[in-house]
Specification:
43% of the residues lie in helices and 24% in strands. It has 313 residues and is an alpha+beta fold. The longest helix is centred in the C-terminal third of the chain and has 46 residues.
Length: 313
């Protein structure tokens, strides 16, 4: 660039500084938003998938019509592990309940996940941040994100109502991190974790109504990515439960293998943000194009004057 062109460019910039500043700001902001959403999407998918797979999620869950004794469920789980295609099995249950804290009924419900005290937690597991699993009888762990929602703290006493109908008073003994669930504020529901030993009432031991399975491809020792394979094996186990144990099956749940149950919600939210970022980028490009067009239009008389006195192209 010659010295004359440099001088002209500098004077053009000086003549319309606000326009050039606005163009730079518009492009910078839109690129930052668009790039930030893309980076967040990549990070969220990577970290969510990694954290979810660390919980060793179940390939399928067989829900019984009627809950059975925890000891009977444990025996069935042992037999289920010998079924073709099944590499892991365990009994669980879960239920929603109203929760009373220090004599005050909370507006948000509590979803409780229950397992046997001797469950090895090789599948559908979670990370106990305070305390060690299993909690002692009469104790419950609360999800980290549920403490503020339910307005409880470690050491508080909570009263819940299990399916047996008899209220149980529990002490919050620790917290849990479970990446397989949606955040408690999003669902407006708290999450709690306890063993069947904490739900012993005058009616007897707590019962379990879910048989969780991990299904592998033939000759493999890792959970299958083929949903059709999982459906076939889970269906076979369901028929076996009906035939050999006389248990009625309520439903068989088979989520998409290796996919977080709430990944679709996160993708939809991030996609909407990405669409907004793309719209901002497009509008800023249109703004810059219009401004540049106006600046170039101002140059037409100057070009005519220079050509009149013999300037070259």
């Amino acid at each position: 660039m010659t010295s004359l062109l440099t001088v002209k460019l500098r004077r053009d910039l000086r003549a319309s500084p606000s326009r050039f500043v606005l163009m730079v700001i518009a492009i910078a902001v839109s690129l930052t938003v668009f790039g930030g959403v893309l980076a967040a999407w990549g990070a969220v998918r990577r970290e969510t998938s990694s954290a979810y797979l660390d919980t060793e999620p179940a390939s399928a869950t067989i829900v019984l019509d009627q809950a059975i004794d925890a000891k009977q469920m444990a025996a069935i789980a042992v037999e289920a592990r010998r079924r073709p295609g099944v590499i892991e099995a365990t009994g669980r249950t879960q239920f929603d309940t109203e929760v009373e804290v220090n004599g005050r009924l909370r507006d948000n419900p509590l979803q409780l996940f229950v397992s046997a005290p001797d469950d090895p937690m090789r599948m559908a597991r979670f990370d106990a941040r305070q305390g060690s699993w299993p909690p002692s009888p009469g104790e419950v762990f609360i999800g980290e994100g549920s403490l503020a929602l339910l307005d409880v703290a470690v050491g508080d006493a909570v009263t819940v109502k299990p399916p047996s109908g008899e209220r149980v008073r529990l002490r919050v003994a620790g917290t849990v991190y479970d990446p397989s669930l949606a955040p408690a504020p999003q669902e407006q529901k708290g999450h709690g974790y306890l063993s069947t030993a904490s739900l012993v009432t005058s009616g007897g031991q707590a019962a379990l109504d879910q048989l969780k399975l991990q299904v592998a491809d033939p000759g493999q020792a890792t959970p299958s990515r083929d949903r059709n394979r999982v459906v076939a094996v889970a269906g076979d186990v369901g028929k076996w439960l009906q035939r050999e144990h006389g248990l009625a099956i309520g439903e068989i749940q088979v989520p998409e293998p290796y996919a977080h149950p709430h990944q679709g919600q996160a993708d939809a939210l991030l996609l909407s943000l990405l669409a907004g970022g793309a719209a901002a980028l497009l509008l800023s490009a249109i703004l810059v194009a219009n401004m540049l067009n106006n600046l170039f239009t101002q140059q037409i008389p100057q070009i005519g004057i220079m050509k009149a006195i013999g300037a070259r192209s």
